[in-house]
């Protein structure tokens, strides 16, 4: 067991960290709700600098224009990117595009890769992943009402989706739809590529979340597929493999989420310490002199440190032994890191007092928009039951 | 000790509850951020119905057009009003006006009462209370930089305030300003009435909080007093008594806050139970069948019940024995009820899943806007230290 | 709603408190594990003083030699008694005798009352209640294997019980046994009086709990009923009513437990404050100056205060409206007060440092012996589910 | 970063684990309180098997008869040993002897090593470490009243100590005493070797802790040094270096504690899962089917996993970069792992129900005797303040 970080990786981490500090954090005041499109040119300028530095799409293989990092290496970078709400977008490794790129690499035909992956990897277009439906509990992704039927060489999709992140402005959606209703539960659904300009693709609304519908990349859409027809070759992967592909995507996706959350934790921790050290309760008596604040800082450090090692351990396991071998860790970090995230954010806000609930720091943004961390990708309660039942198998007589 | 509720009070509670359900909750979709002014006429219509029902300003003495309830009686009504973010406003007992009315009744001259209290009690104007300053920790309200100097029969105010709730559209502010810088710490400040159309009264901005600056009553302003002059008779209460008056106002104000929070808890609890009982995980297997959801419901009920009795006990003590005798309870319920509030809201959101973070229920509104409950009126950590030091005096050798 | 305490009750409370302080707490060093019998004469001397003061058996009707208090009045006294592990015993209102007295008053025949209740009320004998079985989860008291069959004018009991509190030295047991195996689930069991000198009554052992088996009243026995025969008239209450009687007993019994726990909380709180105020970290810098200690004191006070009102409210509801009307409160306080108890004890120990885990204070005793508070009378998790399901009925479509 | 465990280490871990399961856990019923000496021969027999297997004293250099493991390697073994309360003793790496061996290796003269270290390493004698004093807060180890004065070629010790673990039956104590009262605070104390048969060495009592004084190795003594004289050459290390040596000892000692706690966690987790999987609530419906139990199992696994990696990371840092570089981790794991330990034990007991508080499992033992984990080595609250203040230095303007 060796916890040391190789020099080349440490340099990448340092460069990334500096770039976030110098080029990305100054853009944060641009991100009030609903201002994504209006400020896109500023973000594009930062993206160009990332390309120039050779840091573009760190998760992608080099043949697709990325850095070709292992998952563990990318995890370290992802933590740095997560320190700003804009970080992953600027480096073109933001969800859901990052997952869609993975699916296209793994399951796309050469034609699909040429048409969809290439511009996505280049940052020329955006995409979305359309799975969750308002009529079904998100905790059970095998329950879907959206259907796709094949006739005359084309798929016809009908259905209702919501929480399709970043659909507003996306060039295409990867849609989970039931293609084989009579198959076994886990083999009913397939994934299909649906360009958003297809007739029948209806963007109902960006859902107002925590007070605002957002816009562009920073939004979550309600969609309807109204007899929406795409050619037969828009099937992505094998017919009936939709659920399986979605599952495979979860492992690396979990690392992305958790390291991003740990980046948020790192920034919130910094802000908390900075505020504590500089805010004076009375002359020369800083907030940092209060034992409660000290306690929050110590506990946050310990919790972040431990949760971070658990996440890195899972990334390493995926790299070394594959997703299946890592499935317990993948489940555990989901709820464990989300819990740490919420506690650290809460403490950081409390240390800031009234300032903490204003938009003068990114804390209030994360407080609102990461409340979902315990809900999306399946509520934490479900993950706990699933992992416990798996563990308990070894004890059952 | 007798926990029964007299019939006349129970009838008032029932009437109020029904009015909130039938007339106020249907208005809630009007309250997205920034829409207060645009929808004011709808709220005014509801206010008129309240007047017609004889429920107007339940906290006010009858001579000022109110119902003349005791604090304990008002507490029960306040809980019902708190079930909607619009309740207190519709009944004209919303903070900060409710506190300002109390100050004017207790300390205003007949002329001040005629000019300011009368229209305020009638709901014809709004007001604000301008105390907190960005340069000083809110936990120590004796630290103020805003000054008021008396010369030529007028007070000249200079200073910088923020988190002056509802200043946007208010007719006047009650301002805490240092009038006697050389007096003992608690006798330096006075309260002054400053009409908002006074030259030098600068409304800098509504502070963006949790993603939005809000507007009208639903906002928190940053203000500057730039050589703002008001006549000598705008002093409210005795010179140097500003801090004392503010303190006296805290007792009943604490009951108002806590019973409002308990009203939020009651509504969130209802929403949580309703969702649990009606959301199906699979056919005929509702979310309510999950033990974790049951645990949250049971714990929420127990915590709300106990916190509610503690708050009512404090209201009763103020009515019976005065604010001084009740000061321990007043401190305790601040942090205790705020803590229950946060936990109940968090559970209610989690039970709603993705729906819980949308604006389709009021939960996300409260989640954002009541995060401040642990901060405003002094951070909970300060209250804990204060009350503990008072208790510990009895044990000190 | 009126929270005032009548003068006559306040005097009783004060007298009881003083007696505990002056006469009972000094006896506490006598209570190391296994020393009950050896020190019984000291406890009997204290009991005689209680009789002389007219405070004997405060829960009992006057015709049985008690004070005839209402449940609410007794609750206040019980809190005072709970401040010492010896309090309830010295006043002859200790579990399980207190519950057995209630059953005998309510359901005993005149002959049973004369033979068993009279000496029990007088403190001349002790008793036990034999329900829990090692083979069945305590959370489901309808599952019992112990049987009693009637033939030849006598009941023959066979079965295995454990956690029969205070069986060691008891004169008789009230035993729950299945008499009607084919009846509906809740009508299968009856209660029978079994003198402990009946042949076949086997005291297997006092179960070693938290390091010690204890002795006499302070023990929890494993028992076997080996073809143990008692006359037909030893049936207590109606045949098949065993479960119902046990249920009825739970309401007042819950108040007894919770007020005793609140008495423990009160004492632990006192000890914590005293220690904080007198232990010096360095010259003239007491432990009480630490914010974390202040926080624990403030939170403990708030939690104890709220939980206490909830318990008193439930006692009042039972007095006024009966056990059935109070059943929600009865369930809620079980887990709510047990939770407060555990937190307060934990904080009090931590404030004492190494001293807190020694036997120089009663804290370590309670820490060990009240860990069971979340387990006995049914684990808290079961109570939470039960009360939640009852609440959810009102929301089910 | 590489989380893999080398084969040779994995074999050692497996062997150790099997030995604990097969040879040590069966001895646990021998450990009721006060039975150490009476059963010592059984433990000695197990020790001989350990020697025969070549697993003796894994932490010691080979020249002293140990296995010569690195701290990280020993950490893995220590976790296995911690699965039984008897594990470390049987492998002769129990506190406080393990720390005393380290001090003697690092600071002892050849003569001291020959006389004290050799038999200690061989398991022929035991020792104790005598630092804490009842008159001073354990959180500040520079405050000591025990003195040692040098005259006539001998040191005369006077003082009062308590919580001197395992003094009962020890051959010698390493005593912290003030030798230079006028030196700077951290240079006042020295360490001295005091044979326990020295006149004036008074074993006052084994302190009753959690209901029992214990005996032999399993005890914590109160001691008095009454003009206790030892030769000048019994000074251990440099004069005035007592505090420094104690500090150095803390780093590895912290790893020992934390990995032992993690071993307890592992065993408690196993017991919890086994109980959940095998205890039936009703026919074929095991306790494991309850969501609350599943939640506890999942959360325990996540917390143990993360805390374990944090501890291993600290051990690795000490091995690679030294104690000073690892000091933040050393502070963090103290309170973090102790917190996890307490939570896991609490859940495991609750899952066992009434059985959990009996002595039929080791859970109740650990519940009692590891409550001190948050107190000994300095209360957690102090560690939190210390580590936070160190972190905050980087943020102070």
Question: Overview of this structure, please?
Answer:
Four copies of one chain form a homotetramer. By secondary structure, chain A is α+β, with helices and mostly antiparallel strands. In chain A, 48% of the residues lie in helices and 16% in strands. In chain A, strands 2, 3, 6, 7 and 8 form a five-stranded antiparallel beta sheet that branches. A four-stranded mixed beta sheet of chain A has the order 1-4-5-9, with helices on one face. In chain A, helix 7 (242-278) runs parallel beside helix 9, helix 9 (327-352) packs across helix 11 and helix 9 runs antiparallel to helix 12. The first copy, chain A, is globular. Chain A starts with 6 loop residues before the first helix and ends in a 5-residue tail after the last helix. At the B-C interface, helix 7, helix 8, helix 9 and helix 12 of B face helix 7, helix 8, helix 9 and helix 12 of C.
* CATH class call of the largest domain in chain A: Mainly Alpha
Q: Please name the two chains that share the biggest interface, counting residues whose Cβ lies under 8 Å from a Cβ on the partner chain.
A: A-D, 54 and 54 residues
Shape of chain A: globular
Tell me the name of the CATH homologous superfamily of the largest domain in chain A.
Butyryl-CoA Dehydrogenase, subunit A, domain 3
Give the termini distance of chain A in whole angstroms.
34 Å
Strand content of chain A: 15-25%
One letter per element, helices H and strands E, the order of chain A comes to: HHHHHHEEEEEEEEEHEEHHHHH
The CATH architecture of the largest domain in chain A is: Up-down Bundle
* Oligomeric organization of the protein chains: homotetramer
Largest sheet of chain A: 5 strands, antiparallel
Number of helical segments with 4 or more residues of chain A: 12
Query: What's the gyration radius of chain A in Å?
Result: 22 Å
CATH fold annotation of the largest domain in chain A: Butyryl-CoA Dehydrogenase, subunit A, domain 3
What's the number of extended β-strand segments of chain A? 11
Q: Give the count of structural domains of chain A.
A: 3
Proportion of helical residues of chain A: 40-55%
Name the poorly predicted regions of chain A. Answer: none
Structural category of chain A: alpha+beta
């Amino acid at each position: 067991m060796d916890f040391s970080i190789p020099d080349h990786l440490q340099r990448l981490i340092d460069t990334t960290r500096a770039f976030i500090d110098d080029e990305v954090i100054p853009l944060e005041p641009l991100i009030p709700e609903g201002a994504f499109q209006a400020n896109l040119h500023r973000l594009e300028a930062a993206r160009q600098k990332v390309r120039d530095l050779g840091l573009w799409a760190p998760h992608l293989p080099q043949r697709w224009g990325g850095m070709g990092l292992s998952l563990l290496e990318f995890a370290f970078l992802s933590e740095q990117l997560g320190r700003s709400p804009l970080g992953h977008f600027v480096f073109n490794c933001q969800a859901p595009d990052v997952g869609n790129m993975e699916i296209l690499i793994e399951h796309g035909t050469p034609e699909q890769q040429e048409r969809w992956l290439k511009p996505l990897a280049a940052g020329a277009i955006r995409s979305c992943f359309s799975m969750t439906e308002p009529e079904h509990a998100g905790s059970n992704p095998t329950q879907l009402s959206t259907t796709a039927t094949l006739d005359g060489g084309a798929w016809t999709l009908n259905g209702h989706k919501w929480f399709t992140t970043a659909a507003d402005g996306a060039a295409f959606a990867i849609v989970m739809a039931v293609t084989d209703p009579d198959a076994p539960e886990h083999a009913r659904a397939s994934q299909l590529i649906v360009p958003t300009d297809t007739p029948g693709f209806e963007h109902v609304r960006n859902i107002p979340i925590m007070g605002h519908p957002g816009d562009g990349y920073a939004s979550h859409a309600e969609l309807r597929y109204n007899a929406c027809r795409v050619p037969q070759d828009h099937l992505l992967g094998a017919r009936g493999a939709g659920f399986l592909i979605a599952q495979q995507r979860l492992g690396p996706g979990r690392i992305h989420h958790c390291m991003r959350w740990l980046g948020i934790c790192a920034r919130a921790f910094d802000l908390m310490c900075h505020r504590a050290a500089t805010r004076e309760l009375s002359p020369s008596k800083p907030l940092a002199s209060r034992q409660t604040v000290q306690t929050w800082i110590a506990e946050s450090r310990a919790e972040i440190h431990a949760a971070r090692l658990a996440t890195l351990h899972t990334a390493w396991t995926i790299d070394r032994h594959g997703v299946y071998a890592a499935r317990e860790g993948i489940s555990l970090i989901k709820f464990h890191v989300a819990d740490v995230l919420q506690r650290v954010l809460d403490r950081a806000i409390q240390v800031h007092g009234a300032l903490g609930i204003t938009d003068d720091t990114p804390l209030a943004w994360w407080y609102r928009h990461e409340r979902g961390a315990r809900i999306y990708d399946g509520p934490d309660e479900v993950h706990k039951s699933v992992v416990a039942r798996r563990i308990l198998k070894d004890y059952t007589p």
